[in-house]
User: What shape does this take?
Amino acid sequence: MLKFVHQAICDIRTTGSVFPSSPRLARAMTNSLRDHRGEKRILEVGPGTGAFTQAILSSLRGKDSLDIVEVNPVFCEHIERQLLAPFRARHSGMSIGLHQGPIESAALEGGYDFVICGLPFNNFPVALTQSIFAQILRLMRDGGELTYFEYAGVRAFKRPFVGPHGRERIAQFKAFTQKTAKSHHVTRSLVVANIPPALTVRLTKRRGNLEACSE
Ligand SMILES: C[S@@+](CC[C@H](N)C(=O)[O-])C[C@H]1O[C@@H](n2cnc3c(N)ncnc32)[C@H](O)[C@@H]1O
Assistant: This one.
Protein backbone atom coordinates (compact mmCIF):
# COMPACT_ATOMS: atom_id res chain seq x y z
CA MET A 1 0.00 0.00 0.00
CA LEU A 2 2.76 2.51 0.94
CA LYS A 3 4.71 1.70 -2.22
CA PHE A 4 1.59 2.39 -4.31
CA VAL A 5 0.86 5.72 -2.57
CA HIS A 6 4.51 6.79 -3.00
CA GLN A 7 4.51 5.99 -6.74
CA ALA A 8 1.14 7.78 -7.13
CA ILE A 9 2.67 10.91 -5.58
CA CYS A 10 5.72 10.62 -7.90
CA ASP A 11 3.64 10.12 -11.06
CA ILE A 12 -0.13 10.53 -10.70
CA ARG A 13 -0.67 10.67 -14.48
CA THR A 14 0.41 7.09 -15.17
CA THR A 15 -0.49 5.66 -11.72
CA GLY A 16 -3.92 7.28 -11.91
CA SER A 17 -5.04 6.63 -8.35
CA VAL A 18 -3.83 7.14 -4.80
CA PHE A 19 -4.93 3.72 -3.52
CA PRO A 20 -4.60 0.25 -5.03
CA SER A 21 -7.85 -1.50 -6.01
CA SER A 22 -9.81 -3.44 -3.38
CA PRO A 23 -10.08 -7.26 -3.25
CA ARG A 24 -13.79 -6.89 -4.21
CA LEU A 25 -12.87 -4.97 -7.39
CA ALA A 26 -10.12 -7.51 -8.12
CA ARG A 27 -12.71 -10.30 -7.87
CA ALA A 28 -15.13 -8.52 -10.20
CA MET A 29 -12.34 -7.81 -12.72
CA THR A 30 -11.37 -11.49 -12.84
CA ASN A 31 -14.81 -13.25 -12.69
CA SER A 32 -14.56 -14.56 -16.24
CA LEU A 33 -11.19 -16.20 -15.59
CA ARG A 34 -12.67 -18.35 -12.83
CA ASP A 35 -15.76 -19.25 -14.94
CA HIS A 36 -13.72 -20.23 -18.01
CA ARG A 37 -13.37 -23.94 -18.83
CA GLY A 38 -10.26 -25.02 -20.76
CA GLU A 39 -6.85 -23.50 -21.35
CA LYS A 40 -6.56 -19.72 -21.25
CA ARG A 41 -3.99 -17.12 -22.31
CA ILE A 42 -4.12 -13.97 -20.20
CA LEU A 43 -2.54 -10.53 -20.54
CA GLU A 44 -2.52 -8.14 -17.57
CA VAL A 45 -1.74 -4.47 -18.28
CA GLY A 46 -0.79 -2.03 -15.50
CA PRO A 47 -0.67 -4.32 -12.43
CA GLY A 48 0.77 -1.68 -10.05
CA THR A 49 1.48 -3.52 -6.79
CA GLY A 50 -0.54 -6.53 -7.98
CA ALA A 51 -4.11 -6.07 -6.67
CA PHE A 52 -5.49 -7.93 -9.72
CA THR A 53 -2.39 -10.09 -10.28
CA GLN A 54 -3.06 -12.11 -7.13
CA ALA A 55 -6.61 -12.92 -8.28
CA ILE A 56 -5.32 -13.80 -11.77
CA LEU A 57 -2.60 -16.10 -10.40
CA SER A 58 -5.10 -17.95 -8.25
CA SER A 59 -7.28 -18.63 -11.34
CA LEU A 60 -4.44 -20.28 -13.32
CA ARG A 61 -4.63 -24.02 -14.02
CA GLY A 62 -2.69 -26.60 -16.07
CA LYS A 63 -1.23 -25.08 -19.25
CA ASP A 64 -2.65 -21.56 -18.75
CA SER A 65 -0.24 -18.69 -19.39
CA LEU A 66 0.05 -15.09 -18.21
CA ASP A 67 1.94 -12.09 -19.61
CA ILE A 68 2.13 -8.88 -17.60
CA VAL A 69 3.05 -5.43 -18.98
CA GLU A 70 3.89 -2.62 -16.54
CA VAL A 71 5.60 0.67 -17.41
CA ASN A 72 6.91 1.49 -13.91
CA PRO A 73 10.14 -0.39 -12.99
CA VAL A 74 9.47 0.01 -9.24
CA PHE A 75 6.15 -1.85 -9.61
CA CYS A 76 7.81 -4.49 -11.83
CA GLU A 77 10.47 -5.18 -9.22
CA HIS A 78 7.79 -5.36 -6.51
CA ILE A 79 5.45 -7.84 -8.20
CA GLU A 80 8.36 -9.99 -9.40
CA ARG A 81 9.69 -10.32 -5.85
CA GLN A 82 6.37 -10.48 -3.95
CA LEU A 83 4.15 -12.47 -6.32
CA LEU A 84 5.75 -13.93 -9.45
CA ALA A 85 8.95 -15.51 -8.08
CA PRO A 86 7.07 -17.36 -5.27
CA PHE A 87 4.35 -18.45 -7.76
CA ARG A 88 6.92 -19.77 -10.27
CA ALA A 89 8.67 -21.70 -7.50
CA ARG A 90 5.39 -23.55 -6.81
CA HIS A 91 4.28 -23.95 -10.48
CA SER A 92 7.45 -24.52 -12.47
CA GLY A 93 5.71 -25.63 -15.72
CA MET A 94 3.53 -22.54 -16.10
CA SER A 95 4.48 -19.69 -18.45
CA ILE A 96 4.48 -16.35 -16.58
CA GLY A 97 6.15 -13.38 -18.33
CA LEU A 98 6.76 -9.88 -17.00
CA HIS A 99 7.51 -7.11 -19.54
CA GLN A 100 8.64 -3.68 -18.37
CA GLY A 101 7.56 -0.90 -20.73
CA PRO A 102 4.44 0.78 -22.16
CA ILE A 103 1.75 -1.52 -23.57
CA GLU A 104 1.43 0.60 -26.71
CA SER A 105 4.87 -0.56 -27.91
CA ALA A 106 5.06 -3.99 -26.24
CA ALA A 107 6.25 -6.74 -28.61
CA LEU A 108 3.92 -9.62 -27.72
CA GLU A 109 2.73 -12.53 -29.81
CA GLY A 110 -1.00 -11.93 -29.19
CA GLY A 111 -3.93 -14.35 -29.36
CA TYR A 112 -5.01 -13.61 -25.77
CA ASP A 113 -8.33 -14.96 -24.49
CA PHE A 114 -8.46 -12.40 -21.66
CA VAL A 115 -6.96 -8.97 -21.05
CA ILE A 116 -7.23 -7.51 -17.54
CA CYS A 117 -6.36 -3.84 -17.74
CA GLY A 118 -5.71 -1.48 -14.80
CA LEU A 119 -4.78 1.60 -16.87
CA PRO A 120 -6.18 5.01 -15.82
CA PHE A 121 -7.66 5.93 -19.24
CA ASN A 122 -9.37 9.00 -17.80
CA ASN A 123 -5.92 10.53 -17.13
CA PHE A 124 -4.59 9.90 -20.62
CA PRO A 125 -4.82 12.06 -23.76
CA VAL A 126 -7.51 10.56 -26.01
CA ALA A 127 -4.94 9.79 -28.75
CA LEU A 128 -2.97 7.65 -26.28
CA THR A 129 -6.13 5.81 -25.15
CA GLN A 130 -6.94 5.12 -28.82
CA SER A 131 -3.49 3.73 -29.54
CA ILE A 132 -3.60 1.54 -26.41
CA PHE A 133 -7.06 0.17 -27.37
CA ALA A 134 -5.76 -0.50 -30.89
CA GLN A 135 -2.80 -2.43 -29.51
CA ILE A 136 -4.92 -4.42 -27.01
CA LEU A 137 -7.56 -5.33 -29.63
CA ARG A 138 -4.81 -6.48 -32.00
CA LEU A 139 -3.43 -8.72 -29.26
CA MET A 140 -6.83 -10.35 -28.49
CA ARG A 141 -8.28 -13.32 -30.34
CA ASP A 142 -11.76 -12.91 -31.87
CA GLY A 143 -14.28 -13.43 -29.05
CA GLY A 144 -11.58 -12.56 -26.49
CA GLU A 145 -12.51 -10.40 -23.53
CA LEU A 146 -10.99 -7.13 -22.29
CA THR A 147 -11.92 -5.98 -18.77
CA TYR A 148 -10.93 -2.52 -17.54
CA PHE A 149 -12.34 -0.21 -14.90
CA GLU A 150 -13.03 3.43 -14.26
CA TYR A 151 -14.10 5.31 -11.17
CA ALA A 152 -17.87 5.79 -11.01
CA GLY A 153 -18.92 9.30 -12.02
CA VAL A 154 -15.31 10.43 -12.51
CA ARG A 155 -15.99 12.47 -15.66
CA ALA A 156 -19.03 14.25 -14.21
CA PHE A 157 -17.01 15.00 -11.07
CA LYS A 158 -14.04 16.40 -13.02
CA ARG A 159 -15.99 18.46 -15.56
CA PRO A 160 -16.49 21.67 -13.46
CA PHE A 161 -12.79 21.80 -12.50
CA VAL A 162 -10.96 21.17 -15.77
CA GLY A 163 -11.55 24.16 -18.06
CA PRO A 164 -12.57 24.11 -21.77
CA HIS A 165 -9.62 21.96 -22.91
CA GLY A 166 -10.33 19.35 -20.21
CA ARG A 167 -14.05 19.34 -21.06
CA GLU A 168 -13.20 18.77 -24.72
CA ARG A 169 -11.00 15.81 -23.71
CA ILE A 170 -13.84 14.35 -21.59
CA ALA A 171 -16.28 14.69 -24.53
CA GLN A 172 -13.78 13.02 -26.91
CA PHE A 173 -13.21 10.17 -24.46
CA LYS A 174 -16.97 9.65 -24.11
CA ALA A 175 -17.42 9.64 -27.90
CA PHE A 176 -14.60 7.13 -28.22
CA THR A 177 -16.05 4.71 -25.64
CA GLN A 178 -19.52 5.00 -27.26
CA LYS A 179 -18.05 4.15 -30.66
CA THR A 180 -16.17 1.23 -29.15
CA ALA A 181 -19.39 -0.07 -27.54
CA LYS A 182 -21.06 -0.07 -31.00
CA SER A 183 -18.25 -2.08 -32.59
CA HIS A 184 -17.94 -4.67 -29.82
CA HIS A 185 -20.13 -6.14 -27.08
CA VAL A 186 -19.72 -4.11 -23.87
CA THR A 187 -21.24 -4.58 -20.39
CA ARG A 188 -20.64 -2.60 -17.19
CA SER A 189 -21.05 -3.40 -13.54
CA LEU A 190 -20.74 -1.27 -10.40
CA VAL A 191 -18.43 -2.25 -7.51
CA VAL A 192 -19.24 -0.12 -4.47
CA ALA A 193 -16.62 -1.71 -2.20
CA ASN A 194 -13.64 0.22 -3.59
CA ILE A 195 -12.15 3.65 -2.86
CA PRO A 196 -13.66 5.31 -4.83
CA PRO A 197 -16.49 3.03 -6.14
CA ALA A 198 -15.69 1.73 -9.60
CA LEU A 199 -17.34 0.42 -12.76
CA THR A 200 -15.90 -2.64 -14.45
CA VAL A 201 -16.21 -2.50 -18.25
CA ARG A 202 -16.16 -5.85 -20.08
CA LEU A 203 -15.64 -5.73 -23.86
CA THR A 204 -15.97 -8.87 -25.99
CA LYS A 205 -14.13 -8.48 -29.29
CA ARG A 206 -16.31 -8.99 -32.35
CA ARG A 207 -14.84 -11.28 -35.01
CA GLY A 208 -12.10 -9.52 -37.00
CA ASN A 209 -13.18 -6.12 -35.70
CA LEU A 210 -10.39 -3.68 -34.92
CA GLU A 211 -12.70 -0.70 -35.39
CA ALA A 212 -13.22 2.10 -32.88
CA CYS A 213 -9.65 1.99 -31.81
CA SER A 214 -8.78 5.06 -33.87
CA GLU A 215 -10.66 8.06 -35.17
C1 LIG B 1 -4.50 2.84 -11.58
S1 LIG B 1 -2.93 1.95 -11.46
C2 LIG B 1 -3.67 0.33 -11.29
C3 LIG B 1 -2.85 -0.62 -10.49
C4 LIG B 1 -3.56 -1.91 -10.11
N1 LIG B 1 -4.03 -2.65 -11.30
C5 LIG B 1 -4.75 -1.62 -9.21
O1 LIG B 1 -5.88 -1.62 -9.73
O2 LIG B 1 -4.53 -1.40 -8.01
C6 LIG B 1 -2.36 1.99 -13.17
C7 LIG B 1 -1.11 1.19 -13.46
O3 LIG B 1 -0.87 1.24 -14.87
C8 LIG B 1 0.53 1.45 -15.11
N2 LIG B 1 0.65 2.08 -16.45
C9 LIG B 1 0.32 3.36 -16.79
N3 LIG B 1 0.52 3.55 -18.11
C10 LIG B 1 0.95 2.37 -18.63
C11 LIG B 1 1.29 1.93 -19.95
N4 LIG B 1 1.23 2.77 -20.99
N5 LIG B 1 1.68 0.63 -20.13
C12 LIG B 1 1.74 -0.22 -19.07
N6 LIG B 1 1.43 0.15 -17.79
C13 LIG B 1 1.04 1.42 -17.57
C14 LIG B 1 0.95 2.34 -13.94
O4 LIG B 1 2.34 2.34 -13.73
C15 LIG B 1 0.15 1.72 -12.79
O5 LIG B 1 0.85 0.63 -12.23
